[in-house]
């Protein structure tokens, strides 16, 4: 029997609304479509005063840039690479656009979101390679926007947090400069049977079994 978790009324409502978008269809296409519908339903209106543009450049994953409208600072934009979550299997430029828009609007910087390749069609290291390519293009100022190379950061949630951490490790190993900041939002950083994973193995929305499916797809 599944354990009962002591959720606040607001969290219980969030869980119920999220579950309403679930599909019994097991195909990956159906799961991705359901995830996209859920993300769209939770997406608030975009903040005003932003310029948003999509880029398709050779050798890079598809990118979406979010920045304040108007002229860049004299030193260029402070910038952040954002890597979305979704268990390495789900998500895209639309599913996490509200994260990026809020960051750009509140912090007054340029946010570059990367639509990295997804598992299981593209297992490790494809997503990391795409993340590194996007980071280097942002760092080197080849995305058509003036960049302040002294004020660069990387961020990601869940699987994107894993990719953000892996990106920093890869840069370290390659002898390249680190971001000024790294923001990891509930990142997937290990596969150990930690206390929380054991005690909350059947937690609503993300169980230990769900995590196992994602990890096995990314690291077959």
Structural commentary:
- This protein has helices spanning 9-19, 28-42, 97-107, 126-139, 159-173, 195-199, 208-218; strands at 50-55, 63-68, 77-83, 110-114, 147-157, 181-185.
- The chain is an alpha/beta fold and 220 residues long.
- Strands 1-2-4-3-5-6 form a six-stranded mixed beta sheet.
- It has a domain at 48-190: Alpha/Beta hydrolase fold, catalytic domain (Rossmann fold, 3-Layer(aba) Sandwich).
- It is 37% helix and 18% strand.
- The model has no long low-confidence stretch (mean pLDDT 96).
In short:
The chain has 220 residues and is α/β, with parallel strands linked by helices. The chain contains seven helices and six strands. The chain has a domain of 143 residues: Rossmann fold (3-Layer(aba) Sandwich), CATH 3.40.50.1820.
Q: How is the topology of this model organized?
A:
Elements: H1 9-19, H2 28-42, E1 50-55, E2 63-68, E3 77-83, H3 97-107, E4 110-114, H4 126-139, E5 147-157, H5 159-173, E6 181-185, H6 195-199, H7 208-218
Parallel strand pairs: 3-4, 3-5, 5-6
Antiparallel strand pairs: 1-2, 2-4
Helix pairs in contact: 4-5
Level of helix content?
A: 25-40%
Global structural class: alpha/beta
Largest sheet: 6 strands, mixed
CATH overall fold name of the domain at 48-190 = Rossmann fold
Q: What's the helix count?
A: 7
Distance between the termini: 30 Å
Q: What is the CATH H-level superfamily of the domain at 48-190?
A: Alpha/Beta hydrolase fold, catalytic domain
Radius of gyration: 18 Å
Shape: globular
Q: Strand arrangement, largest sheet?
A: 1-2-4-3-5-6
CATH architecture of the domain at 48-190: 3-Layer(aba) Sandwich
